[in-house]
């Protein structure tokens, strides 16, 4: 792999700072986590977006969350066809091997993936419809959500589609037999959250009201 | 989505604490990031493992890294077949849309996915060979790495396979035409890192020595 | 004390979040509690176990409960021998200085201390019988309880010994003259509770039925 | 145990509220904690005082902290004399059985136990010097701290003695061979904290400066 390059110096410096401080102060805990294995309480599925800092928002330290991040925090439907499904693999590992007890989908505002999906579905992004567009094919997962926002005024559709990215993923999660089984037995709770990256708030989906509502302490 | 449940109270409390402190102190920056969009310098591909805290290790703040996390930090080969490839979509978005200038694969020790792959390839985990095993099919990506560790004593194979998970991913990245093009034009640097979660060190791949070496400041 | 180390960063962050929210919203109350002193209604004696959250279960706010926590929520018999008795000191302070009107012993299931006591008393943990074993000597307090569970089938003994840890402590409390006096004058009520940490229920000791019964609202 | 009484109604109501909400939302996690055992990262030793809410301040949820609470957050010196030492038993269990990696002494301002110790040592509380005073004998542990504050103006002595309650305990912890060994091997970190219950701040002991300093994020 001859193209690999040394890390930028600023990252090396930060790593060395981290190791001399945070790591050093928690050395024994990291050693235990390595020796005894992880036992995370929750799996979090969030977007790759650089503005979504789940561990900061939820004050999570090493060992707490098993985190999968992909574009637009999407979960595809259950499809055991022998192909590679990275998200489904992560869900399977978290639920069946690690036995997490919470699975949280964290959506967010200003999501480039969701905006692209809306542009594609409304005919404004033909390049995303190409077979060779990985982003386009990935965002196909959200097409059922697009159908549901069509009745809204155009100016509100993208905003609602961000919520649908959470809801469609939760619905798809329930198509996985091992997820459904553990949800129904009470061994796993699903949660849907929307993070507004501009004003810092989070909303959570309330199935009784069938909408996202502010969290209250 | 009637199965969604309220967030655990402790997460709500932590979120409220974050919003009243970190968020509040950086309110203007978050507002700008939302209004003007993200402009991350690097994409990081890391494992979902709860013990791998890339943002801590590299002291990354909101807006710095576009982060994809999947099991065993793997990148599949370029395969534009119209199917859903979440990792390839994330790479495509980071390189083509966000134009990141660094792409870092962060592997780690004690990786459950890698250990599972070794067990599967060596015939000790028939359940992972089932067509319906998402984890097994996902770990197929690392099979070429398994071939290369076979010559080692069995006790060293898993440890070396963790390194191969970084190298195979870097090699697969180079099969993406848009990655290769930008690497060759000097617009994108690839980096391979291995994080020892027990002793807190990181090593980086050095193509001259063809092995992982300590980083130096 | 040159070995002291800085607090882990995640605890500092959580503290800062707490101060900016819960503390800040109740600033005046905390100020009054500091200026005027505490006036707790109840003393609670519970186990150190990390899974026993008395303040959560009983929704207690700052200033409500004077809480002593030790291994297996034990109270030794009255023994004014001039030695150090931390539990007796806590009881004395709560009853004589603070004049609490309730004293609640909260036992719990899956108690490592109780299991160790059973192992020791039944001859399976010789290391706990050593003079130098602090845990063993502490659990000696529960030996009278072990005698009472011997008649049960072995498989039920530990479960019953968890109840005895509550009852023996209540009995020992009555050997303290200042406790007995206030109980008999009606100024202090004793309560015995068993918390099942797995299913979240609590039972309370009913002296009429001479057993633990569900609480009813 | 015929004196036991039913729980006050308000506690029953709060318990029922907790079970229907917090417990219910985290049912699977509590079940796992019960089935698999606790694995707390830290032991905390704090005062029984009703105004000291360690779990709130540090945002700790069920399973995180092994908590011992006694009067004035004191640890006696190592004394394996076959007598009952509840605090030493708790430390032994946390360090040897649970293998916690942090041990935090949390002192606090306005501590009644510390004030009593000062009154006793300065000759103003003869009742605490009685052999039968459990509080007096318990506070004997802090006498070495009193010696060190004598040089200060009388008005500052109690305030400094609260800090000594943390430092003497840390020093005494180091007299336990199993604590010293793990501290020296890097498997356990000791921390000393002082919580001002009136203004909500916490300070931590800095051995370089030899004083308590504000924590910084």
UniProtKB/TrEMBL annotation, chains A, B, C, D:
Binding residue positions for Zn(2+): 47, 49, 108, 111
Alphabetized UniProt keyword annotations: Lyase, Metal-binding, Zinc
Coiled-coil annotated spans: none
Catalytic activity of the protein: hydrogencarbonate + H(+) = CO2 + H2O
Cofactor: Zn(2+)
Enzyme class, UniProt record, top EC level: lyase
EC number of the protein: 4.2.1.1
Domain of life (superkingdom): Bacteria
Free-text function comment from the UniProt entry: Reversible hydration of carbon dioxide.
Official protein name in the record: Carbonic anhydrase
């Amino acid at each position: 792999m001859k193209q690999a390059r040394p890390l930028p110096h600023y990252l090396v410096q930060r790593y060395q700072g981290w190791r001399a401080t945070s790591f050093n102060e928690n050395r024994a805990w990291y050693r235990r986590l390595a020796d005894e294995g992880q036992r995370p309480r929750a799996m979090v599925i969030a977007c790759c977006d650089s503005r979504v800092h789940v561990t900061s928002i939820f004050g999570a330290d090493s060992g707490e969350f098993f985190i999968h991040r992909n574009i637009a925090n999407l979960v595809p439907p259950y499809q055991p066809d022998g192909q590679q499904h990275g998200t489904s693999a992560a869900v399977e590992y978290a639920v069946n091997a690690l036995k997490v007890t919470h699975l949280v989908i964290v959506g967010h505002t200003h999501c480039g993936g969701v905006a692209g999906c809306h542009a594609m579905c409304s005919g404004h992004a033909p390049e995303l419809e190409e077979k060779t567009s990985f982003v386009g094919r990935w965002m196909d997962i959200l097409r059922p959500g697009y159908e549901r926002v069509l009745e809204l005024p155009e100016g509100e559709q993208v905003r609602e589609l961000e919520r649908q990215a959470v809801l469609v993923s939760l619905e798809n999660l329930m198509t996985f037999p091992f997820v459904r089984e553990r949800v129904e037995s009470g061994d796993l709770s699903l949660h849907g959250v929307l993070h507004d990256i501009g004003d810092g708030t989070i909303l959570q989906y309330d199935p009784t009201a069938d909408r996202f509502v502010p969290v209250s302490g």
